[in-house]
Design a protein that fits this description.
HTH gntR-type domain-containing protein, WH_DNA-bd_sf, three-stranded antiparallel sheet, Four Helix Bundle (Hemerythrin (Met), subunit A), 230 residues, 10 helices
Length: 230
């Protein structure tokens, strides 16, 4: 009978990396869900106590979140949940207006029946979440819909940029829908964009997508200006 293979201990560095990734994911969800509002300080000692771990993986998790723009490491304050300025919101939506309609023109011509089925399933899921007031799902479902529309464009760099912009839009999208009451409009326009693509009216679909993004951006900027920013 052969001897059992020796058990290898997990190196501390790898263990910390694994724990820090889990902590980063948990904190990311709490930030995106609005539990941690922009401007809130994330104290390493308090988080270490809450998670029952040392401060090392907490610090690494916060650095991961800083790399994605969800927190800022501020001298003498530590990690602070990021918010967007009015100018940043305007910039994000202007970039989306420039990129997404042109990518849809390329992508929609390559849609298969399976693609349309997936898009319709996603619009139904989004519509259900909107009607049910499941605010925590709105940003993610919106992001998935827009990326699925553009997935066949064959422009990976542009899609990477759009993906980042949509991630930045997660919290603002939920704010815009909640504050403006545009839930029915968002649901209707997503469905109409898919209808137009399936009917071969791709340029009309791109025009509607452009108007859809422009309206959301204009509405959100107005909300930010009334409230003095995020």
């Amino acid at each position: 009978m052969s001897a059992a293979a020796p058990t290898r201990s997990v190196p501390d560095r790898l263990r910390h990396k694994t724990v820090s990734a889990a902590v980063a994911d948990a904190l990311r969800q709490r930030i995106l869900n609005g539990e941690f509002a922009p401007g809130i300080q994330l104290r390493q000692d308090a988080l270490a106590e809450e998670f029952g771990i040392s401060r090392i993986p907490i610090r690494e998790a916060l650095l991961q979140l800083e790399a994605t723009g969800l927190v800022k490491i501020v001298p003498h304050r530590g990690a602070v949940v990021s918010g967007l300025s009015v100018e940043e919101v305007e910039d994000i939506f202007q970039l989306r207006v420039q990129l997404e309609p042109s990518l849809l023109l390329l992508s929609a011509r390559r849609f298969s029946e399976d693609d349309f089925h997936a898009l319709r399933s996603l619009t139904e899921e989004y519509g259900t979440a909107l009607q049910a007031g499941q605010v925590e799902l709105w940003g993610e479902l919106n992001r998935r819909f827009h990326l699925d529309l553009l997935r066949h464009a064959g422009r990976p760099r542009s899609l990477g940029i759009v993906s980042g912009l949509l991630q930045d839009c997660d919290r603002p999208t939920r704010l815009q829908l909640s504050a403006s009451g545009d839930v029915a409009r968002a649901d209707r326009e997503h469905t109409q964009i898919v209808d137009l693509c399936e009917g071969g009216a791709i340029e009309a679909a791109a025009d509607l997508l452009r108007a859809h993004i422009e309206h959301a951006g204009t509405s959100l900027v107005a909300i930010y200006r009334r409230s003095g920013g995020a």
